[in-house]
Every structure is written in structure tokens, then in C-alpha cells.
Amino acid sequence: MIDLSHVNAWVFDMDDTLYPREQGLMALVQARINAYVVEAVGLDPQEARVLQRQFLDEHGTTLAGLMANYTIDPEDFLRVVHEVPLDGVEPNPRLAERLKTLPGRCFVFTNGAREYAHRVLDRIGIADCFDGVFAIEDGDLTPKPEPSTFRHMIERFDFEPRSSAFFEDTPRNLEPAKALGMATILIGDGHGKPLGDHIDHIAPDLLDFLNALTFKDAA
Ligand SMILES: [Mg+2]
């Protein structure tokens, strides 16, 4: 049995964590990012994909890689790549119900843009389950897994990392969390990336995992 009774701050990545990857939203965003890179850098789509993967590995996001290597307008990038229809994302009232019963506060910590994050949370029907959303603009466009962005987020929401848990689908984004003392839960299979012992728990489905939690002092 998994005991997270010590946790009073529940921190969630958003994309592919608070809704299943199969709903396809990130694939739409990725396609728009690819088109943006093609245009901004002047590569063909295949080359742009290679560059984009390199940026993700080296900088955490495509945007951070573009900003380090080219002159681009980050606001324009964030607006354009997040202009995606949300029809594929399903409302999840059972998740909303469960988040509201977790003991303590809940937060979103995303490398996505603020306005997009709020649209997605609204669409799922969980916007009112969170005490705060830390989007890419809040970390001065410095994405996870940069440790300073984790420290920013923790300061902003003012919680004790050792009393918190972080849920993420990208394995390496759990590394700084673990180093800070957060309990770490990988949602999904890690996209074929290396896992490692900075991951405390692996859960194929977020809601199933949350529903299986029991709390010592629960009535
Ligand atoms: Mg994610």
C-alpha cells in the first residue's frame, strides 16, 4: 500500500499527466511547434524535428532552445503553438471530485503557457481544484527540469518540499523534485525514456493511483 499521509501539497504537471496522452492534445501542440520551428529557423520539417528534439534534451523546451540560439519573440511562440482545439480532451468529473478530497492544497506546475493551461484545466473541469498554477511565464520562461524553476514554484506556493508530492509524465522532470525531497510519481510509461531511482512510484493512470491512496487520519 502506498502511504502519502505526510503530503499536504499536491503538485501536478498538466500535459499528459492531468489528462491521458491518448487524448492527443500534445501531438497537436507538437505539430504547431514543429511548424513554428520550420518557419522561424528555415529548415525542412524533418530537420526541424531533429533540432526540436535536441532543444528538448538540452534546454527542457523548444522555446528555451530557440531563445538560446535564435532571435524569436517568445510571446508570439507561446501564443501560436498553443492555438489548438481542445475537443479531444475529455471532461473528467471523477478526477475533479478526487482532487477536491486530497488533504492539503493542489497546484499545477507546467512548461506550457498560462492562458493555455487555464483553458485546458477548464475543459477537463478541474480548474477550481487548484490553489495555484505555475506556468512557463511564472518561471521567466525557464522550464522544468531546471532546479531554480522548482525552487521558484515552491517559494511561490510556500510549501515544504518534504511534505509534497509531484506527478509528472516526463521522467527527468522528477529528478529535481526528488532532490528537493518531494515524493515523485511517474504517470504513464515514461515515453521510452530512462526511468531511474529518483522515481518513487509509477502509475499508468493518475485517477487510479489517487483513488488507491489511503490516509491514516481519514474519517
Ligand atoms: Mg507533461
From TrEMBL:
Pfam families: Hydrolase
SUPFAM superfamilies, sorted: HAD-like
Superkingdom of the source species: Bacteria
Database matches in PANTHER family: HALOACID DEHALOGENASE-LIKE HYDROLASE
Name the record gives this protein: Pyrimidine 5'-nucleotidase
